[in-house]
């Protein structure tokens, strides 16, 4: 089967019906050429996206655990656990030179993991012949990671190095200041990497409990994108995952909505950063129907040379670069607009221009041709951003994390359905002048808010 | 005796259209399963000093800003409406281009690319704007500790005038501000043309038709009138010294340890494999030792700029180190470099690394853009490889003595070290 991810006719059918009777997989549905199954014994969700252009595959496990699940006093635990998961598991012991990092890079695989606010994903892009090995390793570390005490000290030091690297990056500090101000009383306010004192305090027992609670089949999605058929997917699940005992269902807890500040200005100290202004508005969760119109609104504002902020700022030499983006999360997100410029005296002017561009859309909306252009842009970017199995897997990962993987497959159709009225409505409803965060750099070396 | 590596399952050997066109060489492959079109390519330009590099950089940025037939806005509209991208980049010896779009949009993309290459408009207002943007980017990059270390290392290894010598920020800004539209036009006329032009086209379309399209639009594009020559500027003999640059905003140090690499010690495939073994992959020695065993750093890698027959390359290790690990980290890196340069490369390690390299090749080429980059890199090296399995053959031919010869070129005692980070405590 050849599929075109994201722009095919969306059909909502039962998944592949040709499974052998002994298969552990129960078909759930097929959307956009991607099949969803459940592993009968333990609730593991399995997604199969066939992709046959090269003899490779991505195997990815997405766990519904991210920094928002980190306990108070242990901020950074999900990220530290992600690091520790590369230190070996019972059958793939680092001390026997048989860990994931001993075995998979040695066959050329790309092996990595990322932690974000709502989820952690572990992924292996492997030559197809090594897919079973990748599955065996992922299954083993789902069940029994070593989480060795000595390894913890080594990895804690590496994570603290990573912490310092990020802390030394003024752009990271600006972005974090925006999120901290916008989500003051919500877990999204805390950096994914955590808090230094908390990272130092995390124990092996803490990690074991965090792993036990969140890294189990009922809280995970196994995604396989690549050059294999349903029978092979079924065989991989049967051999490596179906026998893992159930440990409950997915963690359904979503924190209470944040109390967004009315208006907040944040100054971030930096002696050498390129001048930058960041403007952020609170928006609903990633699956909310308004999010698609907000995506297109971001393109109208800063989607290229024909965008409004490019015309208002870059073309006039007031800014070097502008950007706008929408975060699609399980909980509420932000609509962020940024402008970088060269003249440190231009802060106020740039700030006014950003606010004015948003106000103009609230008041006057967008015209039909402008919307048609950004819809074409969104459709094209959607397709071109899915070049290869790793790109497909990463986009599926974010859709899973937001709460519905089918949003990956329906994106093109949903964006096509947005009207000019929708864009003006969401601008008026969500990009409010009385509820935003404005952040910028100021000279100095300490933070000021 | 090297065992011949093999695929457990070979990638499909796609029918490649490898054509010598009037304007250059065209390699196309059809991917029926893909809805995309990925174009990439490059042509050769003369190397020069820092001013020449800057002029080529500015001229290249302006290629997409309007042609004699279409203004900047019209080009942006054609691309943005389709979610397509088209970009140009100036390198040390070649100007590269790349485009990505839906396959249905190829009929728009190929002629637009040809127009941008051949008939740029060079509107004076665009020149002023792009010059200001480039200056801002240079200033911004100069604040980044790694970029700063890179510039300082380039000046430690290469004399002023050498293409790899990066002049000071102030010097480059002065040069840039003096460049005008006449300079840009003259640069394009004298240096840009179908000189060793390479085009790689991959995706869900017929590559033969695509080749015809390119031939139609580029057939009369000729090589520039200025001959391609090397540069007389040379390399500075490395002295094994350490340069420390304080950087007020940093909480950790960016460290570069490097040397130049001459063409006579290595062909492209051998140097590529040697770099992978040293620090160019997660399965490398530096990652295993510094990160996994000693926990000295979050980030360590080795980087290689290929040497050419008429231009030395550069081999360097980049490490981010916290202040409490700075001395230990540098010492541990040097110890690994010494072990590597001593030629301590066992046959089983070579076999393991070769297997890893083959797998990495497969996974890197598992996208149109990845495959395009692989093919273009090989064509630029003159390897003529248009299939992954042919590259594997070349990899199989790399011997331990060849690798040892490359490794010995590191000369650890003469490696230059640059540290950019917080002021050391008194």
From TrEMBL, chain A:
Residues 202-376 form the Peptidase M16 C-terminal domain. It is an enzyme of class 3 (hydrolase). Gene3D superfamilies: Metalloenzyme, LuxS/M16 peptidase-like (3.30.830.10). Residues 53-193 form the Peptidase M16 N-terminal domain. Keywords: Hydrolase, Metal-binding, Metalloprotease, Protease, Zinc. One of its GO terms (biological process) is proteolysis. InterPro entries: Metalloenz_LuxS/M16 (IPR011249), Pept_M16_N (IPR011765), Pept_M16_Zn_BS (IPR001431), Peptidase_M16 (IPR050626), Peptidase_M16_C (IPR007863). Its cofactor is Zn(2+). The keyword S-adenosyl-L-methionine does not apply. It comes from the Bacteria. Pfam families: Peptidase_M16, Peptidase_M16_C. GO terms for molecular function: metal ion binding; metalloendopeptidase activity. Its EC number is 3.4.24.-. Belongs to the peptidase M16 family. This is Zinc protease. It comes from Dokdonella fugitiva.
TrEMBL record, chain B:
Residues 223-251 are annotated as: Disordered. Gene3D superfamilies: Metalloenzyme, LuxS/M16 peptidase-like. InterPro entries: Metalloenz_LuxS/M16, MPP/UQCRC_Complex, Pept_M16_N, Peptidase_M16_C. GO terms for molecular function: metal ion binding. It comes from the Bacteria. Residues 61-149 form the Peptidase M16 N-terminal domain. Residues 181-356 form the Peptidase M16 C-terminal domain. SUPFAM superfamilies: LuxS/MPP-like metallohydrolase (SSF63411). Belongs to the peptidase M16 family. This is Putative Zn-dependent peptidase. The lineage of its organism: Bacteria, Pseudomonadati, Pseudomonadota, Gammaproteobacteria, Lysobacterales.
